[in-house]
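Could you join me in thinking about how sequence relates to backbone shape in a protein? We need material for that, and I hope you will provide a protein of your own picking. Once you have written the record down, we can walk along the chain together:

…
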Amino acid sequence: MDNSPESFPLDKKKEGTPESDDDENNPDKSEKHRQTIGRFRIMLFAAGIIILLLLIIVIVVGVMKKMEKIKPCSSGQTVDLSEPDNPSIFHDLTSKEVEGMMKFLYEQKELNLTRPPDIEVRSSYIFTAELHLPDKAEVTSFLDSRSGQKPPRQAKVIIFRGDLDKPKIMEIIITPLPNPTQYTIWKDNIPFQYRPITGPDYGGALMKISQETEVKARTLLQENFGGSLFFCGTNCLTYKYVTVMSSAVSGRDRRLYWFWVSQFVEFYILHPVDFAVLVDMDDPNYSIEKVWFNEQIFDSLDSLVKEYNEGKLEKKYVPFPDLSETLFSRLYRRGTEFPQTSQGPPISMQPDGRRYVVKGRHVKYMSWEFDFRMSSTHGPQLYDIRYLNKRIVYELALQEIGVFYSGYEPTQMFANYFDSSVLIGPQDKGLVPGVDCPSHATFIPASHVLESSDKLVTYKNAFCVFEFNTGMPLRTHHSSSPFQGAFYEGLSNTVLILRSILSVVNYSYLLDFIFYHTGAIEVKIVSTGYILASPFTPNASNIGVQVSDYIKGNIHHHMFSYKVDIDIEGSQNRYRTLDISTKAFANRFNPDPNAKIVQGQFIVSEKKTESEAAYKFNFDAPKYHLFYNNLKNNKFGVPRSYRLLSRGMSKQLLPEGEGNEPAMAWMRYQMSVTKRKESERICSSIYSALDAKAPVVNFDDYLRDNESIVDEDLVAWVSLGVQHIPHTEDLPVTHTPGMDLSFFLLPYNYFQEDPAMGSCDSVRIEPKVYNNPSSGVKVTGFNQQKLKCKPPVNNYQKTIEADPSILFET
């Protein structure tokens, strides 16, 4: 039987009437019925769609109203970044202090200071200034007593005295801030030729050599490299990068710099051309001493151009790059896109707001407390780090970043860089929420006194502070069998991180200070950024690797130095190692009377002098490195110690005393321990790029006097490093995996047990009846995991569009 709708007309008449003829016998009427039913079905379908849409709208509106009722997540603990009127001991110089300092300095007639922007090489001017701490004994006496008068605030000022008949560099200490009344000499008679390259230097030399090169060698540049230095349109070349030739490698007591030419595109470091000039920076006319072109050396631009015009030189044409988004050196998205869905990546959030407090440059987090600042010369520094209100570290500070290159061309052959020579602190860059740090992080500025301004220069978003779940449990244990008791207990590894990123021309360094609930501190540094490329040549293939059509990446060594002023139960500490070895013992359980069993053992080795404590890693002699107070033992009679564990050790392969190596004597050792002195505050200086023949700060001297380190205030100087042989995956930018280095400060018999046992973030699951899972389970801790609020929106895009100075120098 046909049960289709067409079998049941809507207006069926009685049988026997004229109108009762079968529809099949009345085609017109049958067609009308079909049309009517079709229209009805369409109307029903349309009505269904409308009802469905209305239902969806009702649901969406309901959900939106429900979401509106969910409050935004609380901001949590307080953050106060306002500049204090009465700064703490460790706070960076404030604008009020800099204003008072400048007023005082310009009133000192004997200093003969010139104000920016009128400074010149042969004038007397302020290169930089920053906080200078009083003696440690004064500081700790005030901090520990919490009474008495706070030590006066001081600033160290570096002045270039180019105005004198015999120019020199002075370092002076002025006090008290904000209204100083006196200054004293900290260092005097530093050779003027040791000064880093400065604004007046660089600007004058750059203009002089660019003009001379353009006039004499414009045709050569165009025919070989597709561009010129002036009137170049979009095909511009530039002298942007420099390499220092110190007197230790040049054999001359002159400030010599190689300026090399690159094609000026994004990013020019990956577009070097085989053309460079050696400039005498001590010559007021910035004379060109040598020229390098296509793997040959010439005594002058004139001699190069003469030979070139005579057709005696081979041309090696390097086309100017096409400025498209697909250019290998540009950071535009390209390649196979992923993911294939529109889903966004996971994000970090803090549903109940921040659990740390920031006031000025002081941070409190759980059981931790510390101060921090950004040194203009040396970078990020932490002070008075306390756990459970006991000082663990007085000072934890970056000292130097060094990169030593190898190369066939002089531009990389002599490329031994000390980043403090360009001032590490002002290389801090504006951190981007959601990429460099979680969106919920607290972003903090840093300020510097620079030669370009007589006012404080502020860099926004120089630091970020945030709490972070690492995704790895801090501890976890599931009982392996019922015989051990049925239970589970675990604690997520949530840490506090203080981060900064330094971008020194081509490389970017992420510097983290990480605080764990166990009382441990991790110091971590990660390298990323552009490799320093050189023009490709098949010569010296064991020095560099070809990574693109016209360039190679040269082997280089990244090196980092940190100062760790450890105070364990006071400042009178000792340093010992637990030396791990093996020993053959008699095997009394073997019938052979001569049978032996070899086992591991450790021997305590107390280090008594600085030379004994200069540590070079040896795989055959593993060690634990412990710092402790000999009068403070735990209940078992074992010293309450902190262990220093390095996971970034690297050996400097250069012979001691060779070339620029003396300027980085700290890298001879993976760790050195010295008696703390106020005269030994740093292990490197801004003069290191040029002073290798007679270092202004000679770390070798710190060890040469070989003082006792028993029951003394001790400083550990920790060296980290990584050798980098570039490869094609380094283009366009070196990635971070495998480029991370770190060291830890770990409690070792310091606490009675793991202090993280007190964390309310832990989770325990156990049977309601001991060791009887069938009785059901009791869960403690998971109730804190519920999301009860809306996370804040990342508004950085709107913020940066409104104020580009957050990220870029404007």
